[in-house]
Amino acid sequence: MPAAQRLRPNRTVDMSYFSDALFIGDSRTEGLQLYSGIEGATFFCYKGISIFDVISTKPKEVVTLDGKKYSVVDALDHTAGQFGKVYISLGVNELGYYDDQGYHDKFCALIDKVRETQPDAIIYLQNVVPVNPELCAKYWPSYVTNDKVDTYNEILSQVAEEKAVILLDLHTALGTSDGILAKENTSDGVHFNKAWYKEWLNYLMTHAV
């Protein structure tokens, strides 16, 4: 494994750091793209997508490149060698799945694919930010819970260790000390308001290698 992959995030960077960065994610990552003020980065993200959609025998085509639609995996092939950093943030749309081993295995497979296609990239695996239970009870199915978030974050920690990638602890950075997403930082219990997307970006800029 590249030695850089085993370093702890220990530096603050400016916006130019993201000029060769790729973000893979779901609607939360879309929010980062739209509302945080980030500049220069590339985004392979789509509302509702899960790791089970990304790594599949029939992966969803959600990335548009040169006017054509690609799956995330095919888009990684199409952009081989272009990125110096790859940020992965998935896990919310998986909360209704009950396949912990599959979750583990597919994240490992995605990291392997990133390494294959972007061999010089630093890989950042971002764990899952908690949800707000009160608002989730109003707007989301009953399986959208912090108990499941915690289970999946334990798996992501294992994946990061096994694959020697950098784990970014968004759960702590963007959650409360009680392990929930504060009501004032979300309108629906899952997605963030503009200020909290900016806080996410600030965390990324102060936790780099």
Walk me through what this model shows:
This protein is an alpha/beta fold and about 210 residues long. It has one domain: SGNH hydrolase (Rossmann fold, 3-Layer(aba) Sandwich), CATH 3.40.50.1110. It is about 40% helix and about 15% strand. The strands form two sheets. Strands 2-1-5-6-7 form a five-stranded parallel beta sheet, with helices on both faces. A two-stranded antiparallel ribbon has the order 3-4. Strand 5, helix 4 and strand 6 form a beta-alpha-beta unit. Helix 4 packs across helix 6. The longest helix has 18 residues. The model has no long low-confidence stretch (mean pLDDT about 95).
Distance between the ends: 15 Å
The structural class is: alpha/beta
Tell me the number of structural domains: 1
Could you tell me the number of beta strands?
7
How many H/I helical runs? Answer: 8
What topology, given as strand order, has the largest sheet? Answer: 2-1-5-6-7
The helix/strand order is EHEHEEHEHEHHEHH
Tell me which CATH architecture applies here.
3-Layer(aba) Sandwich
CATH class: Alpha Beta
Gyration radius from CA atoms, angstroms? 16 Å
Mean pLDDT comes to 95
Reported by name, the CATH topology is Rossmann fold
CATH superfamily: SGNH hydrolase
- Gross morphology: globular
- Give a short account of the largest sheet: 5 strands, parallel
Give the low-pLDDT segments: none
Strand proportion? 5-15%
